[in-house]
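Task card 7
Instruction: Convert sequence to structure tokens.
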Amino acid sequence: MKTADAVVIGGGIMGASAAHFLARKGFGRVVLIERGRLAGVSTGHSAAIVRTYYSNPITLELAKRALHMFEHDRALLGGDCGFRPIGFLLLIGERLRATGEHILESERRHGLHVEDLSPEDIGEFAPQLSLDGVARGILEPRSGYADPTRTVENLVAAARPWGLEPRAGVAATGVRLRGDRVVAVESEQGMIETNVAVNAAGPWAGRVGSWLGLGYSLRWSRESDLFVEPPAGFGDLPVVSDPGLRFYLRPCGEDRIIVGLGAPKDIEPVDPDDCDSGLDPGTRERIERPLFERIPALANARHLGGYASIYTITDDWHPIVGPEPGIEGYYAFFGGSGHGFKLGPPIGEALADVICGETPAIDLSPFRPGRFIDGEPLTSAWGEGNRG
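Output:
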């Protein structure tokens, strides 16, 4: 193939979403190139939690749209994405009581059904939890989790009839300009002439930007999860996030639980080209310590292994999305900072509108690449870090 109407670089949730919605809108031939396999790095290792507890208005609006999309995944995301609406429970200690109240009110203002739980309510809902230090809980009954790899595969497969052509195992090697206009994307299999290039390269987005003389401020953090097998008679749990003890968990099928370190995140610097995907003993212990404190019944649970992957983090922990002034036909879409899975589909939908010259239902301008130069980084009631 020598030409395309758009080339999307990167086959994670962001690239797949952008390519899917461009094709769905009838943009023409959309080529999605991914140097490895689809959803092979950050997306495939995502906990894939779909929840709405955000304090930033645009992020909350996108998360609301994401929840709707996963609830109607066959119609809106190309197929069954394995979404399980088991509920999302946020545990709030006294120190974060005011922040929790802010989030609760914000979600209700956006028309979301959330419940304010007392410790007694939490004890009835999730009796497995030790509630030392818990002042209240926020429950999102509609939230839950999905299958990240299946979601990407559905987005890609469903859009093939509309003109999406995936090229897994093909690395991009350059973006060619004529003056200030994109005219081609170079790859290991040759040059693809195009007027539209979307940089959704995840941990390698900075490298793609450098081909155009763009210097993005990005950091990379090694992010780890482990699996445990709950004991017999353990019962069901919702997705649980515990900012006080800084961990989260969710069921993973019928016979295991996935657990990871939660907000506020400590950045563990890593080279994207040299990230050990194994779970090291020290990280395992750091995850197990708060888990066993909050759920003593899991202290003797069977360990089922784990893995490590990569967060791509921007300066304000929110994605960089949109056109770059002075480069016609180039669009950024990366830097999920831990929020990328759930936000990928609604941002991809809105970005497709922008690329097509239409006004999106959700204004993406707060995510524009130039917001840092403009002195308008996004903020959050949660403060610094991966909090949203």
